Request: fold
Amino acid sequence: MFRVRLLGDWPLVRGGRPWYNPFGQDEFRRAALGCCNRESPDFLGFWFRESDTMKMGTPRFAMVLGLSTALAVTLAQGTAQEPAKAPRAFLDGIGPGWKPLGEQDFTQVNCNPDTWTWKDGEVHCTGLPVGVIRTRKSFTNFELVAQWRHLRSGGNSGIFVWAKDASLEGLKPGTLPRGGIEVQVLDHGYATQYEKETGKKPDWFTTNGDVFPVGTSKMKPFPPLSPDGSRSFPSKNLSKGINEWNHYYVRAINGEVRLWVNGEEVSGGSGCDPRTGYLCLESEGSPVEFKNLRIRELP
Reply:
């Protein structure tokens, strides 16, 4: 598709095709280099090709060159005045190396057989009992995308990264892994419930994507930090509420974990130990759903 914008007698199009020429085909031919859309960041300008009958230095050439220069300056000024938008990373997990994670890729650890049910690429968790399922395969360096939503206010869940066999063996229903890096999946209503039930301010956690080590695992969290320094708090509050789908992109490389929430990087940590292990999905008392789980292993 070619976008056309009319400026006087000059139609501007994307691509390197000859353009309409008010001077006649035998005098002048014009081609585009870049894009005429001045809102586009890849605008590069335009160039002119001299013909046999329109030589450099002639009045007509000077007029054309002057018009083109004024046009390029005007568009460049318009582009420069437009505020830059923050980049977003809505990776969909489609492309070379990406693979879906489905029912066949997970195995039970300490949940009931009906805690997790899979249908049409989505997995529904009842939240009972508290526990996890894990991937059958262990991962070291990878990228993960996942969408999730809570179905009840105050819902709690999470994605565990780099959970070892020792942290999962012998887990009884009602308990969680003894190690791993948790990428928290928490509904905003949890903070309200916590304050109501305890009378305390929920200052040691957030509901927008905390990342923290669990049990015997270690991690140096990126700031901002929780009051005790154990959690990486999100730099922005981007999570959506119940019944709305949220998008997580997790990148885990060489002992470093970074989390993007709904397209923007917010939290993470480095120096993780261990830095290889299973991925786990967490059941923790409330119904939650995941979909579009996809992973790409990295060297």
